Amino acid sequence: MTDLIKLTAAEIAAKIASGEVTAVQVTEAHLARIEAVDEKVHAFLHVDREGALAQAREVDAKRERGEKLGPLAGVPLALKDIFTTKGIPTTVGSKILEGWIPPYDATLTRKLKEADVVILGKTNMDEFAMGSSTENSAYGPTGNPWDLTKIPGGSGGGSSAALASYEAPLAIGTDTGGSIRQPAAVTGTVGVKPTYGAVSRYGMVAFSSSLDQGGPCARTVLDAALLHEAIAGHDPLDSTSIDAPVPPVVEAARNGDVKGMRVGVVKQFRGEGYQAGVLQRFDESVELLKELGAEVVEVDCPSFDLALAAYYLIAPSECSSNLARFDAMRYGLRVGDDGTKSAEEVTALTREAGFGDEVKRRVILGTYALSSGYYDAYYGSAQKVRTLITRDFEKAFGEGGVDVLISPTTPTTAFPIGERADDPMAMYLADLCTIPTNLAGNAAMSLPCGLAPEDGMPVGLQIIAPAMADDRLYRVGAAVEAAFNARWGHPLLEEAPSL
């Protein structure tokens, strides 16, 4: 393993800007790492070797011309295969879009290119972002670099695995119910769900439009902040995009300090179903925050107990609507079009062949919840619960006076591949702690807080902030990260078994 792939994104950018290394050298080092280990990890669905090297050569040319380089110029990145990328495949982990080459870039993809970030390729994911383990990918599961027999989280397990295996220093994920934070937790990396609407969804293949949010994945809090700054901002092409300045996330990440902050521990996020080692590491994190000068109080959010049920009515309902566009008529897979079948028959055959079991399960559930006679009882009631959850957050951040809320990111560490494949409810419980934030649209982060004593696998600490107060995540996260690194004597990923 070369020293280049062990550097942080900030360190790589500094070395490129100074001329100590070239962007091409950095890119080649990461491409070599992908070639060496990705057959075992399966983080990538598509590696764009030529495109990445072309981007890197352009960064080097800019430096030679004396042009000012951005904070992440020349840094390689792994992009979740849910964002459209002009000229290279976007499959969303599904057979129904196998081989589809988009004619345009998503806004996020365009922003990365404008920031001179080098896109290495597209990462594996649960089909249409529906899952918590990356086992639902039509192209096979991804392994957790800490233990390749275990899941790397989902739906963005490819992005988290690419980070943990040193195949990329930066990655992009999307978070509908925890799909950035849960993979970060189980792989010992950092993942941030920005405020809903803070990062454009234009060109991101939709799963659940009122919940989906793209965000940064990295190995350090500062790297995540630098990437957050690069991809955030108002986009007139996205009707849900927030027209407001990006919070000062990089400044917060460089000046982490929790002295005088009031931190709320969510009462509902512990108890039955939580792994003992996860709670042990979380309790240690609470004590650490107290040592760092934070005031820690317990916060009661009773509606959070209903979040899982509400989410699994809202998300499938919206997915049922969004996936109706995959009808075999316009793009993607087409099955049975031999001239003897009607358009309806071709559509049915295509969806049968192109969608996996989890996608079909959610489409059926969502269609039922939206059907005449059941809309108010199911979807309408779930939206009322969503309002109650939002009010619980508002109460905590308002009259409760807390600056941030904290909890374990996931109830357990990474579980073995296949263990929950036939038990959807057990799989859904992996998102127990992360879902309320998506329902309310708040910002949240997961960062490593140690290894569970039972299995030696990473545990994540979740930090939740009010909408458009994303900088608080980085302020708290940077302070906790620095304190833990000092205590451990190194970043947590240094303890990961070698591939």
UniProtKB/TrEMBL annotation:
<dbReference type="InterPro" id="IPR000120">
    <property type="entry name" value="Amidase"/>
</dbReference>
<comment type="function">
    <text>Allows the formation of correctly charged Gln-tRNA(Gln) through the transamidation of misacylated Glu-tRNA(Gln) in organisms which lack glutaminyl-tRNA synthetase. The reaction takes place in the presence of glutamine and ATP through an activated gamma-phospho-Glu-tRNA(Gln).</text>
</comment>
<comment type="subunit">
    <text>Heterotrimer of A, B and C subunits.</text>
</comment>
<feature type="active site" description="Charge relay system">
    <location>
        <position position="80"/>
    </location>
</feature>
<dbReference type="InterPro" id="IPR023631">
    <property type="entry name" value="Amidase_dom"/>
</dbReference>
<feature type="active site" description="Acyl-ester intermediate">
    <location>
        <position position="179"/>
    </location>
</feature>
<protein>
    <recommendedName>
        <fullName>Glutamyl-tRNA(Gln) amidotransferase subunit A</fullName>
        <ecNumber>6.3.5.7</ecNumber>
    </recommendedName>
</protein>
<dbReference type="GO" id="GO:0005524">
    <property type="term" value="F:ATP binding"/>
</dbReference>
<dbReference type="GO" id="GO:0030956">
    <property type="term" value="C:glutamyl-tRNA(Gln) amidotransferase complex"/>
</dbReference>
<feature type="active site" description="Charge relay system">
    <location>
        <position position="155"/>
    </location>
</feature>
<dbReference type="GO" id="GO:0050567">
    <property type="term" value="F:glutaminyl-tRNA synthase (glutamine-hydrolyzing) activity"/>
</dbReference>
<keyword id="KW-0067">ATP-binding</keyword>
<dbReference type="GO" id="GO:0006412">
    <property type="term" value="P:translation"/>
</dbReference>
<dbReference type="InterPro" id="IPR036928">
    <property type="entry name" value="AS_sf"/>
</dbReference>
<comment type="similarity">
    <text>Belongs to the amidase family. GatA subfamily.</text>
</comment>
<dbReference type="GO" id="GO:0016740">
    <property type="term" value="F:transferase activity"/>
</dbReference>
<dbReference type="InterPro" id="IPR020556">
    <property type="entry name" value="Amidase_CS"/>
</dbReference>
<keyword id="KW-0547">Nucleotide-binding</keyword>
<dbReference type="InterPro" id="IPR004412">
    <property type="entry name" value="GatA"/>
</dbReference>
<keyword id="KW-0648">Protein biosynthesis</keyword>
<keyword id="KW-0436">Ligase</keyword>
<keyword id="KW-0808">Transferase</keyword>
<dbReference type="Pfam" id="PF01425">
    <property type="entry name" value="Amidase"/>
</dbReference>
